[in-house]
Design brief:
Blueprint (H helix, E strand, L loop, with lengths): L6 H8 L5 E3 L20 E5 L5 H9 L4 E5 L3 H14 L4 E5 L5 H4 L5 E7 L17 H10 E11 L2 H13 L3 E6 L7 H6 L4 H8 L5 E6 L3
Parallel strand pairs: 1-4, 2-3, 2-5, 3-4, 5-6
Antiparallel strand pairs: 6-8, 7-8
Helix pairs in contact: 1-3
């Protein structure tokens, strides 16, 4: 969902290049080691972070890890940045760019986990290649993730979930966890779940939340 442009967010993003990397040249690799205080920590990436409720909470709860919020909208990046600054999240960087360029932004075997939360379902068949669980994206994730890396995916869209399960299965991925009603799983699973803004809204309406964890191990 496209957010209404907020001038303050644009100004905030432009004034903090140390925290937000904007539209980097896909022909040049990003020096991530220079953007984190301790780059030896595990790295996790959220693709399409929206307003950032999920990724900022995750970063706050896990100071022993580094996180990158990949978000194409400047206003959304500004909202994430505001929270990052308020909470002092030195382990979070914001990358304003297109997920299609993911392999250009990160080295091979760079990340331990990739999060796909409430991605655009692109329901029309002619837009299949834009879905973030299409086979070309899966191939990119496999390159960017470490050998034991994992994808965590959540959506309220039953069609996208069914498509994603089939796409990942066809790609030969292994499923560690699959749920068609995440908020009614065992208490220990529900307690660990960090909601996104959209997730909270959809769940409040009684919509089931679909989720899966998958990796590329045979």
């Amino acid at each position: 969902m496209r957010l209404r442009n907020k001038p303050w967010a644009v100004e905030l993003v432009n004034s903090h290049p140390e925290s937000v990397l904007q539209n980097p040249d896909p022909e040049k690799k990003i020096d991530w080691a220079s953007r984190f205080e301790d780059f030896s920590k595990p790295l996790e990436i959220e693709i399409g972070s929206g307003k950032g409720q999920f990724i900022t909470t995750l970063a706050e709860q896990n100071p022993d890890k580094n996180f990158v919020a990949l978000e194409i909208q400047t206003t959304a990046a500004g909202i994430i940045l505001r929270t990052k600054l308020e909470k002092g999240l030195d382990n979070l960087q914001i990358l304003r760019g297109d997920a299609a360029n993911l392999a250009a932004f990160f080295d091979e075997n760079a990340a331990d986990k990739i999060y796909l939360n409430f991605s655009d379902p692109w329901p029309k068949t002619r837009h299949e290649k834009r879905r973030l669980t299409y086979k070309s994206f899966l191939a990119t994730y496999k390159t960017v993730l470490k050998d034991d890396g994992q994808i965590e995916f959540k959506t309220d869209n039953a069609g996208l979930f069914a498509y994603s399960v089939q796409s990942m299965n066809n790609f030969g991925m292994h499923f560690d966890f699959v749920s068609v009603d995440l908020h009614h799983e065992k208490p220990e699973i529900v307690e660990k779940n960090i909601e996104t803004e959209y997730e909270h809204k959809f769940a409040a309406k009684g919509n089931p939340i679909y989720a899966l964890h998958a990796d590329f191990n045979e």
